[in-house]
Design goal:
Layout (H helix, E strand, L loop, with lengths): L2 E5 L4 H10 L4 E6 L4 H5 L5 E5 L14 E4 L12 H21 L4 E7 L10 E2 L10 H14 L4 E7 L1 E3 L10 H10 L4 E3 L5 E2 L2 E3 H11 L7 E4 L6 E2 H11 L6 E3 L8 E2 L2 H7 L6 H10 L4
Parallel strand pairs: 1-2, 1-4, 2-3, 4-5, 5-7, 6-15, 7-12, 8-11, 9-14
Antiparallel strand pairs: 10-13
Helix pairs in contact: 1-6, 3-4
Length: 291
């Protein structure tokens, strides 16, 4: 049984990782403010720690692994540039200090494809250019570089839109907005309907991937993590509509210029990991609305 520190344990991604990993590991999950997750997600292997990420973590827990989820993102309530600096950059520096003091073996940093900014290529890979990323993307890129300078096994995992199972925010990612409209039988407009789509991930896939790597040597690398086997976008939406028995009207609009799929080749070559397909991830997510 490993001891795992998960920062941001009450958020969309962190809460699900806390739940999934606590089945077979001791999980120390940090949170800044109490919410329904910290009150209701309880079992003998979960230890909640009230902690503001921008401060030093002084708890004597000595985990084997850190999964760093905490930080400010575009949908955070407070997300001006000072918040990004204090939570993302200073926050990570405090976690790195904690890792050094406690001789942590591995750090998994959940980054974002927002580091690429204005994506111009139809296939996004790790060598794609960084073109005018947002302040969020800039801080995530800086955080990746910060970790790379440390003498510790790490993996920066660049994520696309992520859907969760305990925390659902219908403002995003894109699939959450679509499902919300379908559940309410609202009209939906689809752009790039004839293009392929894999710009999605669920928290269970993140758990599966990190759990797969827990006992392996990390390559001190940065990888994209997304669904494999892209699916036609129009087909995808109509399949979801059918599964949810929705009466929404689907309007196919002219293509927009911005379009891309995400390449997982680097990740597969490095770790020989079998990714879930786009269809499998969508089915898992939609199933949660039918229970």
């Amino acid at each position: 049984m490993d001891k795992i520190l998960i920062t941001g344990g009450s958020g969309r991604v962190g809460s699900d990782l806390t739940k999934f990993f606590s089945k077979d590991n001791k999980v120390y999950a940090t949170f800044r403010k109490n919410n329904s997750i910290t009150k209701n997600l309880r079992n003998k292997n979960i230890f909640w720690i009230k902690h503001d990420i921008k401060n030093s973590l002084t708890k004597r827990i000595q985990p084997n692994i850190i999964i760093h989820c905490a930080g400010v993102h575009p949908s955070s309530k407070n997300n001006n540039y000072k918040d990004y600096i204090s939570s993302n950059i200073i926050g990570l520096s405090k976690i790195i200090d904690f890792a050094k003091k406690n001789k942590i073996k591995k750090i998994f940093h959940l980054s974002s494809i927002d580091v690429y900014g204005n994506i111009q290529k139809s296939v996004l890979n790790e060598s794609s250019a960084y073109i005018e990323p947002s302040i969020f993307g800039c801080t995530k890129l800086f955080m990746e570089r910060m970790i790379s300078f440390e003498k510790i096994d790490y993996l920066n995992i660049r994520l696309p839109g992520v859907v969760g199972y305990q925390v659902n925010d219908y403002r995003g990612p894109w699939l959450c907005k679509i499902v919300n409209k379908l559940l309410k039988n609202k009209k939906i407009e689809i752009f790039n309907g004839n293009k392929s789509f894999n710009n999605i991930l669920d928290t269970y896939e993140i758990y599966k991937f990190i759990n797969y790597l827990k006992k392996k040597t990390l390559k001190r690398e940065t990888v994209n993590l997304s669904a494999c086997k892209p699916i036609n976008l129009k087909k995808l939406i109509f399949n979801i509509k059918k599964e949810l028995n929705s009466n929404s009207k689907i309007l196919i609009k002219k293509n927009k210029s911005k379009y891309f799929i995400i390449s997982n080749k680097k990740l597969i070559n490095l770790y020989n990991y079998k990714l879930s397909t786009t269809s499998e991830i969508i089915r898992r997510y939609i199933r949660s609305f039918k229970i």
